[in-house]
Amino acid sequence: MKYFVLIGITLFFSACVTTKVPAKSEYRINTELTNFTNDSSMCKDKTLKVAQAFSDKNLMVNDMMYTQGNYKQFFYASSQWAQTPNDAITTKFLSLMRNAKLFQNVQIAGSRSKNDFILEVHIEDFMQYFNADITSSFANAKIHLSLIDATNREIYASESFSAKIDVNTLDAQGGVEGLSIALTKILNDSGTWIAKVCK
After folding, report:
1. What is the model's pTM?
2. 47-72 b/e with 16+ CB inside 10 Å = b?
3. Distant-in-sequence, close-in-space partners of 55: CB < 8 Å, separation ≥ 6
4. For the domain that residue 71 is a member of, what is the CATH number?
């Protein structure tokens, strides 16, 4: 009897040891920035700080979410963000402003340096949406920007940008590709807008 119990325990633990949980696929946001024609003069001798983006809590984690129909929201079981959308979008706007060279200097949110302007980024939507029966999907991004005078803390200019992109595949990768295209459009439109503000 003890022999059979021992065999049973051995088989049980060996099954536990060999069972593997599938690894989650990690996805990054990939954007392509336009090269801006820099004929702006007002901001040439000004400094800018890109603040950490404001967003809902679900964009501050690596879990990847999607919406189905009008009310349901789910996590992808086998897919996640390599970097939280909040951090990734903040970094993209920092790169945008540095590449545009509209300002004398562009600093990160944690910089202790004094700045003339602060760029606030509010992520209002950044999500993949499915219809109720999951036969179609689109990626939607909406971001509001405020350029703030750091001296008096007043809003110097503000604007909202949005993009809606139909996805090619009804899965996490399709959603990431759609969101990347949507964010690319918003970044390029944002750069054009700030260039006009700086004229």
Report:
1. 0.86
2. bbbbbebbbeebbeeeebbbbbeeee
3. 85, 86, 89, 122, 123, 126
4. 3.40.50.10610
Number of domains in the chain: 1
| pLDDT at residue 15, as a whole number | 53
Residue 24 domain flag? no
In a domain, 4, yes or no: no
Residue 181 lies in domain: 38-197
pLDDT of residue 8: 53
Q: Is 181 a domain residue?
A: yes
E strands, the chain, where?
Answer: 25-27, 47-50, 63-68, 72-81, 105-107, 117-130, 137-149, 154-166
pLDDT digits (tens, 9 = 90+) for 5-48: 455 555 555 555 555 656 789 999 999 887 766 666 788 999 99
Residue 59 gets which letter from DSSP? G
